[in-house]
Amino acid sequence: MSTQDTLAAERPAAQGGGRLDGKVVLITGASSGIGRATMEACGREGAKVVGTARTESKLNEALEAAKAAGGDGIVVPADLEDTSSQERVVKAALDAFGQVDVLINNAGVGWQYGIDNPGTMAAIHEASLENWRAIIGGVDLEGYYLAIHAVLPHMLERGTGSIVNVASMAGVTGLYDAHAYTAAKGAIVNLTRSMAITYAKQGVRTNTVCPGFVDTPMIAPVVGAFDDPQVASALSPMGRPARPEEIAAALVFFASDESSYCTGSTLVVDGGCTARSFPA
């Protein structure tokens, strides 16, 4: 049993009075990692969740976890790089529940993608135009545009909504490689700010969560480095990666009315990585 599953088993299901009661939360990249943890966390807070990702079997597992925690919802398998898929996902949410109160834009790629697609996580002098477009024109940036573009008219019509974009600590600081990735994450951070000031008076809030290292399949090729205490200390002041549910907690905050005066905010959840000027 994973750490996430163990913690889930120890927590009771919601009995009403959750922070997301009555809200419909659409989560992209919901089949594993941060997305799955967020499905469960939102369910625990009383939300109806709509999860989307490519793999239906993993989405169903995430939905069952959300239901076991006290929530309800549906899943909509989709390839989010297909330009028509986001409209279909939003339509499915509206058909099922009549509204979408929260969009959590979480789908993205990471280090494993760079291994599977050489050059995409390289420095700019080593990356081809195709490598660049795979990240910028793929799910890491264009996919966010497509999801926002699909759901925003509905939120504006209702005069309410919360959009939470998951970026990365690499969106607020530089990396020696993965330049397309850092460009995409930095763009998400500033897109969030621009949307915040544009739509604040129309009732739609937009915020960003920037995770650091998180123990998910996305960084599985490098997370083993934390097994060495010296390397772990160099990577993060806390000496460990985050658990997915620690990032989900920040996403639930922005999804809920507790963050009603937050828009354009960037919350870095990175164990102190970006707080220091050089490694220990």
What attributes does this structure have?
single chain; about 280 residues; alpha/beta; 7 strands; about 45% helix; globular; disordered N terminus
Explained architecture:
With 280 residues, the protein is α/β, with parallel strands linked by helices. Helices cover 43% and strands 13% of the residues. It is built from eleven helices and seven strands. The protein has a seven-stranded parallel beta sheet, with helices on both faces. Strand 2, helix 3 and strand 3 form a beta-alpha-beta unit. The longest helix has 21 residues. The N terminus is likely disordered.
| Content of β-strand | 5-15%
Order of helices and strands: HEHEHEHEHHHEHEHHHE
- Spatial separation of the terminal alpha carbons: 33 Å
Q: Tally the helices: what do you get?
A: 11
Q: Please state the structural category.
A: alpha/beta
Instruction: Give the overall shape.
Output: globular
Radius of gyration: 18 Å
Reported for the largest beta sheet, the result is:
7 strands, parallel
Number of strands: 7
Helix content: 40-55%
